[in-house]
Design goal:
Blueprint lengths: L1 E3 L4 H9 L4 E5 L10 H10 L5 E7 L3 H10 L5 E5 L5 H4 L6
Parallel strand pairs: 1-2, 2-3, 3-4
């Protein structure tokens, strides 16, 4: 089960206790659940091995996705949404 919108360590713990095995960190600045990659890093560092972090990006350039991944200390995967032409999403470094 994937739970998105994690912004606090307490939320991550609650989601894991509820059975989540994927936690989504929303790196889209216009989202009300936005978290910076730097703020996500200490939460990601607390995750047990069996719980994967997923970075969520919208209309992000590939370099921004890679930078977000690096600053958050590496998410296991990422999810890229496109509201514009698909060229940006097609070039995304997100694992498919």
């Amino acid at each position: 089960m994937k739970v998105c919108g994690i912004t606090r360590a307490a939320d991550a713990v609650a989601a894991i206790e509820a059975g989540a095995d994927l936690l989504g960190f929303n790196f889209y600045p216009r989202s009300p659940r936005y978290i910076t990659p730097a703020a996500a890093a200490p939460i990601v560092a607390l995750l047990p091995r069996q719980v994967l972090a997923v970075g969520i990006f919208v209309d992000a350039e590939p370099a921004a996705v890679a930078d977000g991944d690096r600053r958050s200390r590496g998410s296991a995967s990422c999810s890229s949404m496109a509201t514009k032409a698909p060229t940006t999403a097609a070039a995304s470094p997100c694992r498919r």
